[in-house]
Amino acid sequence: MTEPILRAEGVTRQYRIGNRAIPVLRGVDLSVQAGETVALLGASGAGKSTLLHVLGLLDPPTSGRVLFEERPVHDLPIQERARLRHRRIGFVFQFYHLIPELTALENVKLGSMMDRSLWRWLRERRDLHQRCAELLDRVGLGERMHHRPTELSGGERQRVAIARALVAEPRVILADEPTGNLDSETAVGVLDLLFRLSRERQLAFLLVTHDRDVAARCDRIVRLKGGVVDQGVGHGAEHAARG
């Protein structure tokens, strides 16, 4: 087996409310391989979204460490950490976070501008325009790329968000209830797209979901309970859940 592309070791995360420390993650150990799809299940408040934010370098752990390609990341300088997040990790959330004044194509382009200087952007803008247009075509929006979010359906907006997450050619996609706002038929189409892209690009794919049917489509199921990985869910239970 290859080395994990993303790994958490003893990760804790707590928040402070006044003088009170509120623990959310209590020592999470988790690894994800390149090309692997992993479903993250758990009750509300179990820490699923918090773990995703820590793994995606949006929040630091209170203790423990996160490794990306076996390299500890939270001790990196802030600019290097931001560069790693923009270039190697893609995010897909339940809410699309699209800028309503921009077209679908412009929203995807924005993702490619995040870690480039103005001069680099000007030098590469034609190639980036082509790449973003090709991505939108790949997710089925080739004829809708000049529409603004208000002119798109929920499923189309989520496809724009997926294209934006892929524009930097990441190694990992972190998805937090990506179909939570979609009807069942649209959700199936979006999930088909995500799983297909994961296979084609050998992307590690960590998916937070409450839906057991969605989880059953993944290679592996991990359950968070009380801020830790529930060791009672092993490979046998995972396969049973899928069966």
Give an overview of the whole structure.
With 243 residues, this protein is of the alpha/beta class. The protein has a single domain, classed as P-loop containing nucleotide triphosphate hydrolases (Rossmann fold), CATH 3.40.50.300. Helix content is 38%, strand content 25%. It contains eight helices and ten strands. It has helices at residues 48-55, 78-88, 104-113, 118-138, 154-166, 184-201, 212-215, 235-242, and strands at residues 6-17, 20-32, 37-41, 63-68, 71-72, 89-93, 172-176, 204-208, 220-225, 228-229. The strands form two sheets. A six-stranded mixed beta sheet has the order 6-7-8-3-9-10, sandwiched between helices. Strands 2-1-4-5 form a four-stranded antiparallel beta sheet, covered by helices on one side. A hairpin with a 2-residue loop joins strand 4 (63-68) and strand 5 (71-72). Helix 3 packs parallel to helix 5. The longest helix has 21 residues, at 118-138. The model is unreliable at 234-243 (pLDDT under 50).
Task: Compose a concise summary of this entry.
This protein is an alpha/beta fold. 38% of the residues lie in helices and 25% in strands.
Write the layout of secondary structure elements.
Elements lengths: L5 E12 L2 E13 L4 E5 L6 H8 L7 E6 L2 E2 L5 H11 E5 L10 H10 L4 H21 L15 H13 L5 E5 L7 H18 L2 E5 L3 H4 L4 E6 L2 E2 L5 H8 L1
Parallel strand pairs: 3-8, 3-9, 6-7, 7-8
Antiparallel strand pairs: 1-2, 1-4, 4-5, 9-10
Helix pairs in contact: 3-4, 3-5, 4-5, 5-6
